[in-house]
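In this section we walk through a basic example: taking a raw amino acid sequence and producing a predicted 3D structure, encoded as discrete structure tokens. The instruction is simple. Fold the sequence below.
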Amino acid sequence: MYITCLDLEGVLVPEIWIAFSEASGIPELRRTTRDEPDYDKLMRWRIGILKEHGLGLKEIQETIAKIEPLPGAREFLDELRSITQVVIISDTFTQFGMPLMKKLGMPTLLCNELVVGEKGEITDFRMRIQNSKLSTVRALQSIGYETIASGDSFNDLAMIEASKAGFLFRTTDQIRRDYPQFPAFEEYDDLLAAIKNAMV
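The resulting token sequence is shown next.
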């Protein structure tokens, strides 16, 4: 039995923090897990910038409301879910991810949680589990699933490596060069074909 584990941002939807960086006019917020492998460090840095500019959850959610799935993502996901179980494993937060799940047909999303103050300021974050992507893949394997994984960033590499088959999707040139052992795709049709082949 197979289950496919997908990253969210950069794979199915645009990067939320990049969209918010553009909407807020704060270029520093363009930094993502493609640039900084240490997620804890990245998030604490982001929270500091939000505090400095007096921005909170409301402003970010207003940007998220305008984000649409990447072209072809919904169709890809629908077809993939017709042939195998799918779970989206993301380092995003429930408050960011759930509005986007509605636009993707409500797939299962496993992610983290923001701690929000009374005035809507983001004060902290709670990770669902340490090394969440790898830990989740290992847990799925422990209950009898063969996992197939795909993502675009540093924080996806462990789940890709631990899976029966793993693929990079629309990743950076640097990651592609550093991890040539993982097939890399740019189009959903190619990723879907690779997943189907891995299930044979």
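Looking at the output, two observations stand out. The radius of gyration is 17 Å. The mean pLDDT is 95. In the next section we compare this with other chains.
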